[in-house]
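Inputs:
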Amino acid sequence: MSNHKVQIEVNGKNIEAEVSGRTHLADFLRNNLNLTGTHIGCEHGVCGCCTVLMDEEPIRSCIILAVQADGHKIKTVEGMSEINQETGKRELSNIQKAFWEGHGLQCGFCTPGMLLTTEALLAENPDPTDQEIREALSGNICRCTGYLQIVEAVKLAAKMNKNSTLVYLPEEV
Amino acid sequence: MTKKEQQNVTPYKWVGKKNPPVENHRFVLGSGTYVDDIKMDNMHHAALVPSPYAHAAIKSIDTSEALNVPGVIAVVTGEDIVQSTNPLKQYLEIPGVDWYPLAAGSVKYAGEWVAAVVAEDRFIAEDAAELVKVEYEPLPNVLDPEKAMSDNAVPVHDKHPSNIMWQRKFTWGEVESDFNDSDDEIEFRCRWNRNSTVPLETFGVITKWDEGRKILDVWASIQMPQYPEQIAEALKIPLNCVRVHYDVDVGGSYGVKRGIKHTVLVGYISKRYGVPVKLIEDRLENMRGSDMHGPDRIFDVKAAFDKNGKINSLKMRTIDDEGAYPGRSPLQMGKPIGAIVGAYKIKSVEYEGVAVTTNKTGQVAVRGFGQSPTNFAIEMAVDKVAKKLGLSPIEIRKQNFIQPQDFPYQIPSGTTYDSGDYPAVLNKALKLANYEKLLKWQEEERKKGRMIGIGVATCIEPGGGNALFEPLLNPKNDKTTFPESCQVKVDQKGKVTASIAFSSAGQGHQTLVATILAEELNIDRDDIRVVYSDSLSSLPSQSPVASRMAIVLGGATSGAARRIKDKMIKIAAHNLNEPPEQLYWDGSTVKCNNNSHKELTWDEIVKIAHITYHKMPEGMDPGIQSQFVLEVPTGGTLPTPDGKVQMYPCYSFSAHIPVVELNPDTGKVEFLNYYIADDCGTVINPDIVKGMVVGGVAHGIGAALYEQFSYDNNGQMIAQTFMDYLLPSTMEVPHIDIVKHCTPSPLTSMGQKGVGEGGYMSAPAAIVNAVNDALVPFDSEISHVPITPYDVIQKIFINKGGTHIV
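Outputs:
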């Protein structure tokens, strides 16, 4: 197998690595970078569990090779929250808070893909209708929820982007 | 009323209140720990060699080329496994039908594992697996379950000449005379085709054998009763040498995550070769070779009834195509016995089950454990009776419902339903759907040529799980207990930690336990930690199956909490010099009925228990901790010889009303609305309950309209990927409106019942009834699932005078 040098910006960090030609991006993120929040469900590009953002667009990291991401910006679920430099606490994005508050998940396996697809949707359409949400998420399968609370969570996230005091969440420890 | 009694009628502070589940935090962070996220030093990987044939003798296996690949440490075959392990547990007595992780002698379905390659890297293992050369001699196969039952059928297992693994006819009540005395009867056949709940995470497992400690450590994506026991039995090691780590998030299960064969395989390899081994199925292995398919049934149903719509008796025969290895799956014909008359007062029932092997992938428990197919058959029968009598689907149900005053109500098969108010729940669903108006609208739209269908189905959801189908189907198995447990401790700083002994797959058990502890102990839910222990440090558990955890884990949690409170009251009584009867909890302070100056706070009692032992009552253990093991309510009794059984303790109820439209050009079934009224007793967490109901409907939509593991004539599974095994997306699952009702169970700590499976049990029945309602103007019916666009188009085409579509 051929090996290739790649340079990929992952969650704002510049990564230089050598990968084999056949390593897909999901394996690279999970195995080489230990970013295990990206999940692998089908490895043929249908279920959407492995969705990450490449240059702000949702893509399936199981059918993109790591070498194809060379020179691009990748965002995974680990990049959605950040440490507040003043308080030292990890702060969730509004989308994450809304999925928590709205119980837009059960087992959590499809969740990272749902969150990132939602991020791309709300960036493009800050105030989507139910139908627009369903269309945007139609490539992300969830076997647990039946989607109702996911759609509600996305709507809540859109509202929170305008008014972030909407949710009650347990105080972080 | 004393102050203590006043406490008892205080409404719940935590239970039933909207409060985001605690698990959600790690899942939105992406920091859940699934089995494939776990890595360890020197970890090796297993890759599998599958059979290309549905039935063939294995003539030889040449592993030499694979073994020469650098990084490969072993290639294991069925012969190795047979020599070193016991067969995997199957729940029937079926001599000659041995099930091992790898095929030995012959393969019995396409995709069955023949060999496993172990290498330091998964790429290497997969590459080397392709170099294993297996010589086969193809044998004739048997795929049709009815043909498989005939005397001259090819046996799937040559040491068990018949493909019938189990067959029994039960008769409860005066079936024949009830049929003779009835005015009329209907008879039909319906077909539930093979599907499964197919979680997005495939099954995975890591095992590591520690020779010095004599422990096999197991991390797995598991939801399975008696998992450690079966590992120990198969690997011929003592049970206390198996340590299953339950702090592993399971990426969906819905019954099917039962990778015992995977675990025994890698456990054997770990022990034999001294390395930790990880086996993560890829999607193809999961769909084809995992033995995780679901029920595959033919139902023959007769119902006898009077002109006024009273249904008197039911006869049901079900043939279940188990695939090659029956495992636990035939028991799925046993569970429906506990709700065999649905929600109706049917006097007598004849029920026959037949479990048949064929050359297909094996089955495993699927959400509802067989009740969803059976409810589909029952509810179809009810609609057919209505149709024959010209009654509405509502009238027929109301006419036959068990009434609220009838509870506790014993059905003919010996099971007593605990509580319910079926007419009230159905009425709520009708009101939610604005049913009368809906019917008028349908009539108008039909005149315009639209094919609108309104379906109605109800469903009894047994909850609690006592596994009495085990002795029912196999009297040699006299297991009558199915306990669950909880351990709780209050630490030196007064904080509460609970420990549970199984893995969760999204059901929210940490939230369940924390909510009940918060309620019982009157402390903040988010101050409570709930941790997963391992199988060596835990108390008895039977895992989260059978919609049982709110009932049994909830009950065990309440029990443990009450022991904590009792102990704290005793410590307070000793220190306040008052009898315990005079003391009561006011928030987190113990107060005294007859002396308002006497009180001890939570923190003061904690300090006495942990630090100032000289203040403890004599002989009391230091610290504050408790354990509670709860036998499932109504458990502990064997079935009677004539097959009467108290199957589960608690019975939830729901009514579904989907509104569909059939597209006359494409045959697509589209949902216009979906209404549900649901009664699962006291709700612990409303978000979780809502998710369970709606998620169950999504699975039901898949089963009714999309999902099927179909096979070709050579026994090749032709729906092997998500391109052809169709999972409902946001576009197929509609918005769903739900209204709740609450009839508490008299058998549980807070009146709670089960809710994990009802959505899946009701939806297929309701959707089929809706499609058939849409087909009424075409005078035709579809009586199988999944209903494909082709099926719909064909009915329309035939109605227009065609014969069939090619």
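Remarks. The mean pLDDT of chain A is 95. Chain A has two domains: 3-79, 82-162.
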